[in-house]
Amino acid sequence: MSVLSLARAALLLGLVYVCYSKPLSKKQIDYFKSHAEEWGAPAIEKVLNGTMEKVKKVKIMKMNYESEDDQLCSLVLRKFPKGKIAHGWNCASKPVSLKKDDEDEDDTDESDDDSDEKKKKHKKKKDKKKKKKKDEDDDDFD
For residue 86, what is the enclosing H or E element? Predict the structure, then answer.
């Protein structure tokens, strides 16, 4: 099998996955919320997304959320036909944002204003020097 046909197969499987997954209902999200800590996962602060799909006879529910301690978590629940349930979770720290805080942005705006003023002053000084030099040069020709 060539690399191209493998890529096509992977793309097709991804498309099938998207087509057959459904968003979680409010009841399913509430179920996750009430059992997450029981399963050892961090408490749910904000639900980001959730999907449910059926693979063969197994229902797989996945939910991504933010925990109370600022982690991004994924919770998975598998329901098998004979009533057996398996669950798992995984968390990772949020990536550090490179943006500055609002206070820092305000300081940046002020420093931009200061730099604009400095540029204007520098330009005025430069213009004065040019004018003075021009006047001196004009005096030489008199």
Answer: strand 85-93
Rg (C-alpha) for the chain, rounded Å, is: 31
H/E segment holding residue 74: strand 71-79
Where does the pLDDT of residue 32 fall: very low under 50, low under 70, confident under 90, or very high at 90 and above?
confident
What is the Cα–Cα distance from 18 to 21, expressed in whole angstroms? 5
Structure tokens at 9: 């197969």
d(CA 20, CA 53): 6
Query: Residue 108: in which H helix or E strand, if any?
Result: helix 102-140
| pTM given for the model | 0.52
| Stretch 42-61: mean pLDDT | 88
Question: What's the angle, vertex CA 28, arms to CA 26 and CA 33, rounded to 5?
Answer: 90
User: Token pair of 32, please?
Assistant: 């996750």
Strand ranges (E), 32-70: 44-55, 58-67
**Which residue type is seen at 13?**
L
